[in-house]
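> example.struct
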């Protein structure tokens, strides 16, 4: 009996050491939207020196081990907000700094929406958004960010979305 267990244990050990971990992510409500499939095939294999790793949910992606960048497609488009909005590669992104130094950035004016979560202590949000803009540009555009009212030149409000 011992002879049977040794080879099985060796095979299990070899398989276990050759695998990279799978990142668990929750799919967005509309992850099965065909547009998200188009987005998913366009996300890059690497962002800077971060390699893409496997995820276990539809229309998701992750980079880094441990993960530094998490991406999901198929979210409900965000409502207008006064949070900062940046445009990178023709795509508008709402920047949520609530969990700084981690940033949550969600496409604005795109249906369905996509979202990326970035650990800015490991990579820059600009590098991430630049790398993902080709994929996010596939999402149909139906709105865009606007700037604060020009009527008040002393306004310190962040750019708005509408």
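> example.seq
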């Amino acid at each position: 009996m011992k002879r049977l267990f040794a080879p099985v244990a060796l095979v299990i050990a070899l398989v276990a050491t050759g695998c990279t971990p799978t990142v668990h992510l929750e799919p967005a409500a509309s992850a099965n939207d065909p547009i998200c499939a188009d987005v998913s095939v366009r996300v890059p294999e690497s962002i800077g020196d971060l390699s893409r790793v496997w995820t276990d949910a539809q229309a998701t992606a992750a980079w880094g081990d441990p993960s530094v960048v998490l991406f999901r497609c198929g979210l409900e488009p965000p409502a207008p907000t006064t949070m900062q909005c940046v445009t990178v590669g023709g795509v508008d992104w709402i920047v949520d700094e609530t969990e700084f130094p981690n940033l949550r950035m969600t496409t604005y004016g795109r249906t369905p929406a996509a979202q990326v979560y970035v650990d800015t202590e490991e990579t820059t949000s600009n590098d991430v958004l630049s790398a993902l803009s080709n994929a996010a540009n596939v999402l149909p555009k139906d709105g865009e960010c606007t700037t604060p009212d020009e009527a008040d030149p002393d306004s310190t409000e962040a750019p708005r979305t509408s």
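> remarks
Strands lie at 46-47, 50-53, 60-63, 69-75, 85-88, 91-96, 102-108, 113-119, 145-146, 160-161.
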